[in-house]
Amino acid sequence: AITLSATPTGGSWSGTGVxxxxxxxxxxxAGTHKVYYTYTDxxxxxxxxxxSIVVNGIPxxxxxxxxxxxxxxxxxxLSATPTGGSWSGTGVAGxxxxxxxxxxxxxxxxxxxxxVGGCTADTTIEIEVKPLPVLAIxxxxxxxAxxxxxxxxxxxxxxxWSGTGVxxxSFNPVVAGVGTHxxxxxxxxxxxxxxxxxxxxxxxxxxxxxxxxxTQGYYGSTNGASCDEDSLYRNAVSIIKKLxxxxxxxIGSGGRTLTINVNDSARLNAILxxxxxxxxxxxxxxxxxxxxxxxxxxxxxxxxNNILLSQTISLALNIRIKPDxxxxxxxxxxxxxxxxxxxxxxxxxxxxxxxEEDPLAIRAWYMIPSVVNxxxxxxxxxxxxxxxxxxxxxxxxxxxxxxxxxGAVVPSLGxxxxxxxxxxxxxxxxRLSLGYFASLNLCPVAVPLASKAEEQxxxxxxxxxxxxxxxxxxxxxxxxxxxxxxxxKTKVLIELFDLQGKLLRRVYVGELQSQxxxxxxxxxxxxxxxxxxxxxxxxxxxSGVLLPSN
Length: 550
Hints:
Elements: E1 2-3, E2 12-14, E3 18-19, E4 22-23, H1 25-28, E5 31-40, E6 46-55, E7 69-70, E8 76-77, E9 86-88, E10 92-93, E11 96-97, H2 99-102, E12 105-115, E13 119-130, E14 136-137, E15 143-144, E16 150-151, E17 154-155, E18 160-162, E19 166-167, E20 170-171, H3 173-176, E21 179-188, E22 194-204, E23 210-211, H4 216-219, E24 226-227, E25 232-233, H5 236-244, E26 249-253, E27 256-260, H6 265-271, E28 285-288, H7 307-321, E29 334-339, E30 362-366, H8 369-378, H9 383-394, H10 413-426, E31 431-437, E32 468-472, E33 479-486, E34 490-497, E35 503-512, E36 516-523, E37 531-537, E38 541-546
Parallel strand pairs: 7-13, 15-22, 27-28
Antiparallel strand pairs: 1-4, 2-5, 3-4, 5-6, 8-11, 9-12, 10-11, 12-13, 14-17, 16-20, 18-21, 19-20, 21-22, 23-31, 24-25, 26-27, 29-30, 29-31, 32-33, 33-36, 34-35, 34-37, 37-38
Helix pairs in contact: 5-6, 7-9, 7-10, 9-10
């Protein structure tokens, strides 16, 4: 509105769009409008005058419509009629709108056009920018090259999988072959916004043996069935008897040996599992479980007091369960094995339990470098040679620290026990060798697929700010888990000791990278006494006491 003025003052205005002393172009509308000023003086004389006001018309603007757009879409061209105006708003540059610059949300974009008479016409539209779909995909493997196909899943569902070995929503390791395969999930939502996410699947050759072992804890049990992959045995005594039927086993070497025959099946069951400090035979000659001299190797409760002896006996029995174990080659790193279905599948067929069925289907054991290196330097480095080494140190034909061919040093009794324990556990109740790896390659931890609400959230990366070590379970059973998280690169050494400070086992030597979180699952020592652990890193030492569960 504009203010009307005239002299002399005190008169009145009239005309279209006039109210009092103001003229409203909006009320009057476009066109030429005559307004009148009427004035009466003190003598009663009246005069009228008029003037014309031109009101220019405002054009109707047509700015067009845009979107919804995906946040990663290319900039769009903004076009309006009449032309000649300018655009403004978040994400606007010239006459283009960039959704990636604007970001997710609803944005107000204005078109402004100058008209005759110094006026401006404008209009505002809204452009919605949509987020990309948040994808969550499952974890798979490691798989065996001869294994069955696995189903692939992701949320939101309805996308497309691609990659070597992929057919529809399944992955076939036989088709993919050995190696690490990158699979890609493509998904497009109803707005045309697309996301892509990848997952890697490790396919192992599985060319190793499938073997069946039992722990000395089982050999010393009073009940519980066992399986040698083909036949089921009702208890430990029955399978010990079967393993000794083909002939006695001889433990030790040279002039110090122990003979165990089939008639000793129940006696052997009664004295296992063993424990205590490892040591070499103290007797001379050959003895049996019934010999008076054997009492020196038993505790007051009648169990073997020499962990080296009890583990060696168990290994000798395990080799007889499935002789393929004899030629199994030992290497450094982590030995990985996968659980087999036994006594329920066709004889000779390998049927693996998948990670989806059992998150612990794949397990790993750290090989003892001093033992592996010695055996590979002086022999074929097989399980058979490991048994020979154990018998040699028991019979004192080889002594720990003794220098052998090529400068190879006979490992300590504790390291030999630890390596035998690995083999006795690695194929426990029938497992397939997946090979050796420099780091753990276990079943992936299951990650729940995202809910609808979670799909809109951006994943947050957890930053490790301080060195953390957790050991569990405590009390422990057959395994120990060491969880190590580090904010920076560090060396890690994990050792186990008895309460007198004697080193029982060096279970891990390695290095972690910056912001790495690693969980190590290791075979726990067979002991009825508490033990101590020590985790030594580049900057800090962690230690504590662990209690056995029985």
